[in-house]
Amino acid sequence: MIDFSQDRWNRVKDNARKWWTEELDRPLIQFTVLDCETKRPKPAGPSHYFTSFYDRSVPVQKIVDDWEYRLETSRFLGDDFPHINPYFGPGVAAAFMGAELHNNIEVKTTWFHPREILEPAQLKMQHDPSDPWWPRICDIHRAARERFGGMVQIDMTDLGGNLDLLATFRTSQNLLMDLYDAPQEVKRLTWEAHHRWWDYFTRLSSLCGPDNPGYTSWTPIFSEKPSYMLQCDFAFMISPAMFDEFVMPELQATCQRLVNPFFHLDGPGLLQHIDSLLSIPELKGIQWIPGDGAKDITEWPEVYRKIRDAGKLIQMYLFQSKKGWEALDIIADQLGSAKGLVMIGQGDITKQDEAMKYIEKYGAA
Question: Which domains, and CATH codes, for the chain?
Fold first, then answer.
């Protein structure tokens, strides 16, 4: 059995509710202990983090079996909770609209490519009824809902965001030129993608059913009300003026429809847009990812102070710092408190005692 209870869920929900409204005077701390013992036999055949790596001939019950085994061999500490992620790669909404999904198991990633590069005026961001991935993910949601019956949170898959989806169909280089050569077409396509994104988000949320505990995305920050980790990685290639013209209107509209939106700020190239992002009243928080080769997360106090001063929440991963749990102390000292932070991590049983030390220190036990 999965080592979790309804009482634990009630506690997770209560603390998350207070955290989102800044009534919680401590950080959220989520740590998953992996590879614990269980009497349940491991399901036969390979298991995959990328759900798209399973051949489509593999029954969805096999995928859910693998998730259940992983959950039964995990322990959820602090504010952590059991969840599963139907992960088809970053931006799978592009596949739902007709892009080709290409898995690469060797390097553990997925790419999306257009079947044909159309000019902006000929392109439409619309659902492709012949796409095989949409029915696949719907079947997986139904199977997970039936199996777990509301005791396991079903994460929202990584649908992608904003101009990133359009860049899949036009390529990034072409889209950069389109911003100059066909700005009105870019705006039309952005809003078409917006409507498709919301259709997928709404339909998948409905498939999770009313018994799904709440809302999570590929970053498992729990929310009882609609929430998502928004992004626009394409924006590192454009100026603040272009960001405000082409990205902000759609982003603001999405933030107004979500109750607890977060933004994935990926790499120093996106810092040029942080003031625009922080100006969105409805945006609740920022996930700052310095990126490979960049300074440790503890070495960006000016970024975290700017986010905190704007009244936004902050999410971090344990793996982002070589200092481990000490990073939470350091950033809390830089900000004056740990309130409004959420640290998410995982590790095997040898990491449990250290995790519990910090969970107890910050009152999340």
Answer: 1-36+75-81+214-365 (3.20.20), 48-73+82-212 (3.20.20.210)
